[in-house]
Write a structure and sequence with these properties.
By secondary structure, the protein is mainly alpha-helical. Helices cover about 60% and strands about 10% of the residues. Strand 2 (about 55-60) and strand 3 (about 65-70) form a beta hairpin. The protein is elongated. The relative contact order is 0.04.
């Protein structure tokens, strides 16, 4: 039959699709002009590509031919050539060292280099360990200082012994812990007992300020932090312990001095603001015709000097200004032009209020204004 070998359109489309997807030269981005990408794949050359039997297509543009290469194959060839080059250089360097020092001397030199390298690694590790230890000790010292804020001098000098455990009631009252925040305890003699160290750790994990502690809670908190500090100091190397303790104490002292300086600066700013406020009150009393100026703080002034008294004085002064044309007896009267403008506004149905109020029509009262 003449039509027995005919291929359907669907089959042709499938064959064309498979060809386009299996052929890297028809895949976008899989190939490139070698003349444009040769610098990216050093030390590969076109001769290396041809020697490795890689797929290359030659194309022509305006009479100039150029090779099209598959980038993935060129990348693999470049990696292989670089590795071979590195191995060759290493072998040449090794042969040169052997020729220069001899096998035995070269082995001694390399052993010394290995020892020096390991010593450098050990020194860096020891420095990092020391830094972390100083940071840990300084943190515990800071906790000890913070925990002594609620104690008096006698309690600081002679701290009370810290019980190893405490009851549920004591943990809730001293540290303000809710039952859900209590650590794992143990029932002894029909009562639940909780390790003191775990209770203090739970209190710290909540982030609550130490000012919420009771008097007994302060003592337990301070004693626990001291015990933690002493335990950490005991684990240190006796030869390094004094130096680490001094360095940690210096860190804490520097931090405390910085905090004290910042607090002093804030206090100074607050005092300046209070002085400015007092001076403003004094100026207000003078300008509004009240009693003689005084430098007393606002909180110690009498009723006439309080904001309500100042408002009353301002109202009385405005009344005097409106009923008097004499500048000595009250506020100076407005010029004639301003008085006329005021009458004009009254005719248009508006009344002028205080500076802080609004313009409202005559005969309409605004709630809270009159």
């Amino acid at each position: 039959m003449p039509w027995g070998n005919r291929v359907s359109a669907a089959t042709k489309h499938r064959m064309k699709y498979e060809y386009l997807n299996d052929n890297p030269f028809t895949t976008k981005g899989a190939t490139a002009n070698w003349n444009k990408v040769a610098d990216q794949y050093t030390p590969v050359t076109l001769d290396d590509i041809q020697a490795a039997n890689l797929k290359v297509q030659w194309r022509v543009c305006y009479g100039n031919s150029f090779p099209i290469v598959i980038l993935s194959e060129v990348q693999a060839l470049a990696t292989k050539l670089r590795e071979e080059k590195a191995l060759k250089e290493a072998s040449e360097k090794e042969a040169a060292l052997v020729a220069q020092h001899g096998p035995e001397k070269l082995a001694e030199i390399r052993a010394a280099e290995a020892i020096a390298k390991q010593a450098a690694v050990d020194t860096a590790a020891a420095a990092e360990t020391r830094r972390r230890t100083v940071l840990q000790i300084s943190h515990l010292m800071q906790l000890v200082v913070d925990g002594s804020a609620g104690l008096n001098d006698s309690q600081v000098k002679r701290p009370a012994p810290v019980p190893p455990t405490m009851s549920k009631k004591e943990a809730e009252e001293w540290f303000g812990l809710k039952p859900s925040k209590l650590p794992t305890g143990e029932k002894v003699g029909g009562r639940w007992q909780y390790p003191t160290a775990d209770v203090v750790a739970s209190f710290r994990s909540l982030g609550a300020p130490t000012s919420t502690l009771t008097r007994r809670g302060w003592g337990v908190y301070s004693g626990n932090t001291r015990a933690s500090l002493e335990a950490a100091l005991t684990k240190l190397n006796p030869a390094d312990a004094p130096a680490i303790r001094r360095e940690a104490a210096k860190t804490v002292t520097t931090r405390l001095n910085k905090g004290a300086m910042e607090a002093a600066a804030k206090l100074k700013d607050a005092e300046a603001a209070a002085a400015t406020a007092t001076r403003n009150v004094t100026h207000a009393t003078t300008l509004l015709g009240l009693s003689a100026p005084t430098a007393a703080p606002v909180s110690t002034l009498g009723t006439a000097m309080q904001p309500a008294g100042v408002a009353e004085a301002a109202a009385s002064a405005i009344e005097v200004a409106e009923s008097s044309d004499d500048e000595v007896g009250g506020w100076p009267s407005p010029p004639l032009s301003e008085a006329k403008r005021g009458k004009g506004k009254a005719k248009r149905g508006f009344t002028e209020l205080d500076e802080e109020d609004e313009w409202i029509p005559n005969g309409e009262e605004k709630r809270g204004r009159f």
